[in-house]
Every structure is written in structure tokens, then in C-alpha cells.
Amino acid sequence: MTEEEQREPSMPDREALGELANRVDQQVGLSIKNRRQQRGVTQQELARALGISYQQVQKYENGTNRISAGRLYILAKALNITVGDFFSEIDQPFSSKSLAVTSEDVVLTAKELNAVRDPRVRNSIRALVRILGSDNDPFY
């Protein structure tokens, strides 16, 4: 073994740790959103239970704002789950393709698509969605 190999293993660099923290924030946020929707709780209802604005709940769910340990504990109690439930999917790879489509997403998208009057534009939008959802998606 060389002298370099005998040294203690180096810590990950700050950039790698930052990326990991961001990934965890996104995963926890997605877990909050999924658990909230599974229980039929709106963002407004959850916000009232936590004493915060629904915009803050949105930021938590998007992973934009980090959640303190104390707030995460209160959030778990409000959703009647354990804090650990928020981390149950952390080691699974995160990608936008793995995000679950909810019935709320389907209804909102259908309403928005229905508002497009030109059938050619609607067909183009559906074609775009089909391409973005395919395994051959050039953007991922």
C-alpha cells in the first residue's frame, strides 16, 4: 500500500455534498406531497395545521425550501405518519420521470388542454407529451 492509500479516506467535496442535500430535499418534498395527497389533505389544510402559508408548503414540496427537523416532526404528526416515512424512498434514484402523476395533475392538465381551441395545437401538445414521456426522450 502506498502512503497515499494508507491515509484516511477523503471527505466528499462541498459541491457533491450540496448536490446530495438538494436531492434529499427534493425527495423529502416529493414524499410530503405524496403523503399529503394520499390522505386527501390540501396544501391549505396542511398549512393551517402547521401555522404557515400554503406557499411555504409548496416550497417544501418542491424542495425549494429546506425543512427544519422540528417542522418535519410536526408535519409528520399532522399527516399521522413517522418522520422516517419521509425518507423511505431516499436511496431510490430521483428523476422527473419517477414523479407520480396524481389525479389532480390529470384533471388540471385536461382542463388546460380543453381550453386550447385549435385542434392542431391540441394534437401538437399531446404529441409533445408523448415524446417527453417516451423512453427515447432526448432531454434525459
From TrEMBL:
Cite the PANTHER family for this sequence: TRACRIPTIONAL REGULATORY PROTEIN-RELATED-RELATED, TRANSCRIPTIONAL REGULATOR
Say if the entry is tagged with keyword Glycoprotein.
no
Where does the UniProt annotation place the signal sequence?
A: none
This protein's UniProt keywords: DNA-binding
Q: Which Pfam families match?
A: HTH_3
Please identify the protein, giving its name as recorded: Transcriptional regulator
Question: By its UniProt entry, which SMART domains does this protein fall under?
Answer: HTH_XRE
The residue ranges of the HTH cro/C1-type domain are 32-86
The record lists the organism as Iodidimonas muriae
